[in-house]
């Protein structure tokens, strides 16, 4: 499991668990009571949309866009 710092005012740590055998990543932000599963086979645009739609439910739109971009970058570098 990786722990990343988001460096945003309302969000500190982002936890990323990668399951290579079953080909998915689980991303969680405990401070926001938020988590999501992203499968490897999903295209980048699908991942961006999925993250943004989910994050907007727990934070404002600007922070959701920043977080979605950071998270996508982190899961693609793994």
Automatic annotation (TrEMBL):
Superkingdom of this entry's organism? Bacteria
Pfam families recorded for this chain?
A: YueH
Protein name in the entry:
YueH family protein
């Amino acid at each position: 499991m990786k722990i990343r710092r988001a460096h945003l005012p309302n969000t500190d740590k982002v936890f990323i668990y990668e399951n290579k055998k079953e080909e998915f990543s689980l991303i969680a932000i405990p401070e926001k009571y938020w988590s999501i599963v992203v499968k490897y086979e999903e295209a980048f645009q699908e991942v961006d949309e999925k993250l943004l739609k989910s994050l907007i439910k727990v934070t404002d739109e600007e922070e959701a866009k920043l977080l979605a971009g950071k998270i996508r970058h982190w899961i693609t570098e793994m």
